Amino acid sequence: MSGRLAVIGLGPGDDRYLTREASDALAAADALYGYGPYLDRVPVRPGQTRLASDNREEGARAEAALRHAAQGAAVAIVSGGDPGVFAMAASVCEAIETGPDSWRAVDIVIVPGITAMLAVAARAGAPLGHDFCAISLSDNLKPWELIERRLEAASSAGFVIALYNPVSRARPWQLAKAFGLLARHLPKRTPVIFGRAVGRQDESVTVTPLAAAQDIPADMATLIIVGSRDIRLIARPGRSALVYTPRAVEKVSA
Amino acid sequence: MSGRLAVIGLGPGDDRYLTREASDALAAADALYGYGPYLDRVPVRPGQTRLASDNREEGARAEAALRHAAQGAAVAIVSGGDPGVFAMAASVCEAIETGPDSWRAVDIVIVPGITAMLAVAARAGAPLGHDFCAISLSDNLKPWELIERRLEAASSAGFVIALYNPVSRARPWQLAKAFGLLARHLPKRTPVIFGRAVGRQDESVTVTPLAAAQDIPADMATLIIVGSRDIRLIARPGRSALVYTPRAVEKVSA
User: For residue A208, what are the β-bridge partners?
Assistant: First the structure.
């Protein structure tokens, strides 16, 4: 009597980033769980129920969806971006690990989506064209000292760095501190890309040198990409500059 | 008289991973450039020309497409996975930087796609659920010592590591050396995920402890994810294990 739980990535922004697999998985579900604004992006289908919850209730949402699926239903959780990157797929796994045995019998299907760093990178050129990393700046669930250690390790080894969850009301100072720390390992002119609401009508993309990055506003809808020593900027008359990381590295630069 | 060049990510495998934006961009092109097997995945449209080239001719392909677009045409380059991750978008930027001024007037549009690590992670659970990095193991264009330094920095700072381009005929020993180096920083039981041809009919996903990873065959169609100290494995009766990285980190573990 075990059912199915699909964890579906919608991509960032509107439905331009939706894959065929995600569309099919949304259509096949009896019930959709998710954060309200994500559910609002899914076309309504008669007979399909919707259970919206707050963005901070990831654990409770995962448990409710698993309980529902374990009764035999075809359930889906919708996630912005990719569900596997700082999102609902890990919450579902956590709930399965600590939950009743019956949840281990549920058919779990993760449907990947375009994660924010890929969409922001595409707008700017190819900043993720060579080795890169993704770090969540949220210290809600890990110590700030670990975030600092990862920023230092990544910047000094020459990784381009995508910063997820850069700022929230409860975490006002962490981003400026991160930029300060990165400035000890990277040139002041290193390009930093701020992509906000990419794929939505109010999308904005800003490129600024690291030395001025702390003056650019950011929020939870912002994804930030900090370049490495190898990153390059191509000026184009009448067009925005292209930012990219070359495939070739001549020497160990950092 | 400047035209348009779209660099389009098809995602891995068949068209289940294609986004609506990518479908629209493919349909709008007068001419498609790309590696033959990628072009073969795009439905034929009368009046649209196709120019296939070898996988190693990325620079020449970018230049040919830019030359064509600069004459006013709507040109597209197709790329497997995401064009911004170790793929054609960086080659196009390189060609623009070194090419004639007229190429800077071409309208460049990068269309993101599902990159291999997201598709492989989705099959295994949520191994990229927290901080992670992506490293190309190819030392064709960068020194091997830099790759070693990045592997050490990433594993000792607790990043999950996605390895692109793990093995080729010309690079037979690098992957075993990388596993040996990682084993100095990570427990022997650390899960390693091998995803081969994900999204294709001959897809296979294997999870093995790091101590046995060197015995698993890999090739250029394989994407490998090496866990961190925090990664967890959930056994499920009658189903494959789920591998995931928890959102919470209690302490600085490495």
Answer: A192
- Strand A31-35 to A49-53 pairing: parallel
Write down the pTM of the prediction. 0.97
Token pair 């890169």 is found at A132
Bridge partners (DSSP) listed for residue A94:
none
Query: Are the beta carbons of B33 and B78 closer than 8 angstroms?
Result: yes
Give phi and psi for B147, each to the nearest 5: -60, -45
Alpha-carbon Rg for chain B in angstroms: 20
pLDDT given at position B54 = 84
Q: What angle do CA A241, A113, B40 make, to 5 degrees?
A: 80
**Spans in chain B with pLDDT lower than 50:** 253-254
Report the phi/psi class of residue B72: left, alpha or beta, with left for phi > 0 and alpha for psi in -120 to 50. left
| pLDDT for position A1 | 63
ipTM score of the complex? 0.97
CA A87-A93-A98 angle, 5° bins: 130
Which of B 135-174 lie inside 8 A of A, CB atoms? 135-136, 141-143, 145-146, 149-150, 153-154, 156-159
Which H/E stretch holds residue A144?
helix A144-156
Tens-of-pLDDT digits for all 254 residues of chain A? 689 999 999 999 889 999 999 999 999 999 999 999 999 999 999 999 999 998 778 999 999 999 999 999 999 999 999 999 999 999 999 999 999 999 999 999 999 999 999 999 999 999 999 999 999 999 999 999 999 999 999 999 999 999 999 999 999 999 999 999 999 999 999 999 999 999 999 999 999 999 999 999 999 999 999 999 999 999 999 999 999 999 888 765 44
B65 within 8 A of B75, measured Cβ to Cβ: yes
Taking the C-alpha atoms of residue A244 and residue B4, their distance in angstroms, rounded to an integer, is 19
Query: Mutate which of A2, A5, A14, A20 to disrupt the B interface (most B C-beta within 10 Å)?
Result: A20
Residues of chain A neighbouring B82 (CB-CB closer than 8 A): 118
Q: What is the phi/psi pair of residue A2, to 5°?
A: -80, 140
- Residues 179-208 of chain A whose Cβ lies under 8 A from any Cβ of chain B: none
Query: Is residue B226 within 8 Å of B127, Cβ to Cβ?
Result: no
Strand pairing report for B232-236 and B239-244: antiparallel
Q: Residue B114: which H helix or E strand, with range?
A: none
Q: Residue B81 has what DSSP assignment?
A: B
Structure token digits, residue A81: 């971006």
Q: Minimal CA–CA distance to B193: which of B177, B209, B174? A: B209
**Which tokens in the block code for residue B50?**
């196709």
Cα separation of B66 and B76, whole Å?
Answer: 10
Rounded CA separation B50/B63 (Å): 15
CA B242 to chain centre: 22
Angle between the B88-98 and B58-70 helix axes, to the nearest 10 degrees?
60
Torsion sign over Cα B98, B91, B30, B46: positive
